[in-house]
Amino acid sequence: MKIEVFAALKDYFDGEFEVTTNASSIEAVKAILVNLQPSAIDVLNTCRFAVNDEFIDNDFQLQESDTISIIPPSSGG
Fold first, then answer.
1. C-alpha to C-alpha distance for 47 and 40, rounded to whole angstroms
2. Label partner for 21 (CA 20 to 30 A): which of 2, 13, 60, 73?
3. Which domains does the chain have, with CATH numbers?
C-alpha cells in the first residue's frame, strides 16, 4: 500500500512510502502509522484521508493496491 503524507506529517514520515499490510480500513492504517511514529498520533487524528485521489469515509474498504493520501488540516491567509 502506498502512503502519501502532506504538511505537518512530513515531520514524522517521508512524503511517500509503502507499507506492507493487510489493513482493510483507515483505522487499521492509522494504527500501523502510530506504531511506526507514536508521536504523530495527534496529527493523524485530525487528518482527512483520500484513496486514489478521492476523499473517503472511515468505513471505506481498502485494497492492497490503493494509494492513501493523508492530509492534515491547513490554515491559510
1. 11
2. 73
3. 2-71 (3.10.20.30)
